[in-house]
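User: tokens in, sequence out, please.
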């Protein structure tokens, strides 16, 4: 038997049902016995929503009023009545089992499952399997319109059935027409209909993901704005009703291995992904979550892994994963098991522990632990911030994707930028300095589309473009050298900055609104150099903290030359500065400044690229030039080209109190310029690497 089901919410109707997160207010259903084509009693039930305010479309289409809904039963009571009445109708027809049938998938996937999940009560098993009448209709009538273009009215018109909706109450006509359509389909003797129902997964399945897997880009989304403590199960609950692929939730981490509020989610097919996109700005608790399209390549970068150790650790399926952080470096497996105690036994004992290590084998202080059930995991989480040795230990829920990301990706020693960039033409810019001081003559743009470029920002600014200072657009990049969604713009005066903030705040750029705030040059510099700007004030970048600033750091702020990040990382021949000698210091040649196209200034996250030059573009185009042009420009400015064997060397693990004297002593026997300690060390290309921590210095 089928139970034909129709519903409506207090908000959008039709193709947008459930997209506005409004509650269910109406359920109408009727039982149809397929073998005999008999039908049961038609039932209509109003549902009392927590918010009785109805949208204009809902009032117009349904004719319902808040007063009428106020007298109805809440959703949990209505669903109980639904089960009881369906069972009674089945007994009359001599049947005992049934499957739901709805017009499309929105009512089941986008309304019932999300709403019951938020209200913390369980749906009965019948709501985890249903038939999509539109798909069944297209199977029976292949010449009809595409599934996405179907609705109850178009299917009725195709069969020549009556389509006057005014003859019946809202919801009653829809169910009666759906029943008539089903009876007509049964008369066609089509063997392929009502054989393979749609299914909704009961729970999210964890599992590893290999980098060799092929991930369809049409199945992946990016969720942004997640609470930092949210787990993969929390994200699966946000997308309740949609089928996420096994191991399809990958929490994104920042350079320090902490969650950054984003996740990539992979669904079983593109249809589920498209439904997920309709949950853009739905809420998880009190926070709204932004949902955007992503690619399979992005998912594999976060979730993919090939380590045998990780694969073996994650081979035990349906386990709860807990992450431990802050372990003493000397902690052993026995220490961790003793810390957790007998009340939370680890799956497989020592085999259920995975310590995270640096490439050289040193412990990082992180570990992952497997538990066989939720009870044991909850007991472990109660030990959050308890003491092991002399350190307190943090415990968090984790995911298989996070295990792979932390173990395989976080401590990789390969460069983030694997290839050398194309040489660029050196040009002499007008005098330019980054603004400082407390005058609020700058604006901060937050929430830019990741694809936004300089032209998009200038178009967004409109008439205010003329009030931007020369070279006054600064785009901020994340740890991977990609746009972070933030940018700073220097205006000609504080009044101009105020007007722009008032005029452009929450103005749309492409498909996103952009927040615009007035700020000072000092605040801008703090963020550009790696600090954070939040409600509690300014958090300085690592270079401003005690004992972390190398002696030569000031040279990057006072030097006239502006060098792209690629030059700082790899030092192509034409971009290397000359080594100074005592005889040459009296007359310094004019500096050569390198600018990206459109004079855009981009800044790398300080903790990922240290020390960072004032301008570090990596994603904008450059003006390509043949080697001859570069050499000619360098010669014209009296900048000699250094010989081939030049390399940038990373020093990792330095004591924080290390000074220049200790570093020079360490490199005793190698050639360097004694005047300014800029020299060359003969190393292979493998020594070239991105600097990733404040305690790592550079020796040229």
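Assistant: Sequence out:
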């Amino acid at each position: 038997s089928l139970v034909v089901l129709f519903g409506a919410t207090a908000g959008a109707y039709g193709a947008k049902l459930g997209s506005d997160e409004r509650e269910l207010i109406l359920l109408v259903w009727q039982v149809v016995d397929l073998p005999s084509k008999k039908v049961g009693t038609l039932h209509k039930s109003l549902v009392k929503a927590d918010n009785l305010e109805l949208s204009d479309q809902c009032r117009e289409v349904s004719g319902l009023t808040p007063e009428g809904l106020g007298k109805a039963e809440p959703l949990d009571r209505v669903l109980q009545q639904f089960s009881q009445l369906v069972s009674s109708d089945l007994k009359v027809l001599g049947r005992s089992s049934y499957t739901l049938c709805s017009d499309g998938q929105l009512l089941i996937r986008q309304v019932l499952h999300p709403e019951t999940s938020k209200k913390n009560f369980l749906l009965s098993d019948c709501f985890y399997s249903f038939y999509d009448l539109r798909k069944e209709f297209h199977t029976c009538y292949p010449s009809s319109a595409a599934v996405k273009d179907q609705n109850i009215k178009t299917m009725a018109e195709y069969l020549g059935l009556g389509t006057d909706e005014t003859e019946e109450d809202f919801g009653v006509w829809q169910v009666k027409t759906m029943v008539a359509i089903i009876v007509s389909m049964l008369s066609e003797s089509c063997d392929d209909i009502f054989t393979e129902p749609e299914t909704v997964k009961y729970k999210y399945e964890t599992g590893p993901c290999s980098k060799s897997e092929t991930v369809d880009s049409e199945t992946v989304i990016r969720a942004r704005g997640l609470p930092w403590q949210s787990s993969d199960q929390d994200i699966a609950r946000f997308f309740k009703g949609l089928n996420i692929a096994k191991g399809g939730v990958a929490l994104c981490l920042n350079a320090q291995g902490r969650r950054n509020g984003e996740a990539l989610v992979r669904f079983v097919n593109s249809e589920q992904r498209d439904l997920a996109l309709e949950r853009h700005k739905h809420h998880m608790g009190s926070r709204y979550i932004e949902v955007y399209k992503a690619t399979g390549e992005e998912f594999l970068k976060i979730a993919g892994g090939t380590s045998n150790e990780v694969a073996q650790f994650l081979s035990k399926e349906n386990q709860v994963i807990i992450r431990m952080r802050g372990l003493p470096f000397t902690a052993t497996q026995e220490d961790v098991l003793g810390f957790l105690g007998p009340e939370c036994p680890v799956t497989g004992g020592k085999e259920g522990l995975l310590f995270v290590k640096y490439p050289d084998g040193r412990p990082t202080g992180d570990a992952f632990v497997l538990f066989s059930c939720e009870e044991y995991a909850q007991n472990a989480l109660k030990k959050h911030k308890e003491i092991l040795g002399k350190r307190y230990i943090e415990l968090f829920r984790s995911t298989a994707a996070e295990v792979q990301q932390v173990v395989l990706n976080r401590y990789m020693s390969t460069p983030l930028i694997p290839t050398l960039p194309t040489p660029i033409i050196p040009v002499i810019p007008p005098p330019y300095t980054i603004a400082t001081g407390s005058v609020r003559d700058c604006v901060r743009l937050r929430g830019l589309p990741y694809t936004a470029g300089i032209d998009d920002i200038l178009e967004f600014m409109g008439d205010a473009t003329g009030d931007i200072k020369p070279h006054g657009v600064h785009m901020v990049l994340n740890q991977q050298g990609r746009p972070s969604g933030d940018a700073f713009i220097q205006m000609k005066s504080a009044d101009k900055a105020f007007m722009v903030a008032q005029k452009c705040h929450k103005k749309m750029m492409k498909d996103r609104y952009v927040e615009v705030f007035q700020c000072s040059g000092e605040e801008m510099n703090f963020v550009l150099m790696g600090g954070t700007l939040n409600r509690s004030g300014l958090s300085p970048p690592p270079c401003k903290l005690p004992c972390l600033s190398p002696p030569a750091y000031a040279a990057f702020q006072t030097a006239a030359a502006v060098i792209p990040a690629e030059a700082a990382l790899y030092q192509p021949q034409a971009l290397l500065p000359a080594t100074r000698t005592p005889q040459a210091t009296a007359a310094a040649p004019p500096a050569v400044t390198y600018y990206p196209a459109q004079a855009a200034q981009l800044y790398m996250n300080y903790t990922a690229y240290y020390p960072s030059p004032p301008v570090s573009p990596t994603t904008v185009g450059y003006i390509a030039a043949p080697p001859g042009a570069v050499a000619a420009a360098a010669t014209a400015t009296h900048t000699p080209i250094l010989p081939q064997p030049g390399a940038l060397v990373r020093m990792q693990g330095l004591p924080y109190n290390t000074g220049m004297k200790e570093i020079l002593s360490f490199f005793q026997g190698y050639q360097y310029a004694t005047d300014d300690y800029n020299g060359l060390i003969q190393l292979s290309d493998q020594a070239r690497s991105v600097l990733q921590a404040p305690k790592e210095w550079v020796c040229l």
